[in-house]
Amino acid sequence: MTDLGEVRVPERDPGLQPERTRLAWRRTTLSCTVAAVLAARAALQEGTTAVAVVACALCLLLWLGFLRVAHHRMTELAATSRPRRLSARAAATAALCTMALAACATAMVF
């Protein structure tokens, strides 16, 4: 316990929450990787057209964007027992990349 004047504040025990959160980020990263690879595979199997190359490049960029946010968050979770909150910008980037990658992968299938 830490003394702050007369108020005693207990130390935070994060338990397994940071580890569970890191594992959730890893699962989502794996899902995005699979979607990007399958979209690229579908684009390249049907012939190399300009549309297929652009779709493949877009999927790659979206995957890299999500990977950057996820790696930063997993590193921060591992570094300290009390990580900072995920910024609104990082959360929006992760959500946008995930939804756009899912849309690209779905469009590639149909």
Layout: helices, strands, pairs:
Layout: E1 2-4, E2 7-9, H1 17-45, H2 50-79, H3 88-109
Antiparallel strand pairs: 1-2
Helix pairs in contact: 1-2, 1-3, 2-3
Membrane topology: Multi-pass membrane protein
Transmembrane segments: 50-69, 90-109
Organism: Streptomyces durmitorensis
Detailed description of the structure:
It is found in: Endomembrane system. Keywords: Membrane, Transmembrane, Transmembrane helix. Pfam families: DUF202 (PF02656). The protein is about 75% helix and about 5% strand. It has about 110 residues and is mainly alpha-helical. Strands 1-2 form a two-stranded antiparallel ribbon. Helix 1 (about 15-45) packs antiparallel against helix 2 (about 50-80). The longest helix is centred in the middle third of the chain and has 30 residues, at about 50-80. The chain is elongated. The mean pLDDT is about 80.
Observed structural traits:
mainly alpha; 110 residues
Task: Put the structure in a nutshell.
The chain is mainly alpha-helical and 110 residues long. The protein has helices spanning 17-45, 50-79, 88-109; strands at 2-4, 7-9.
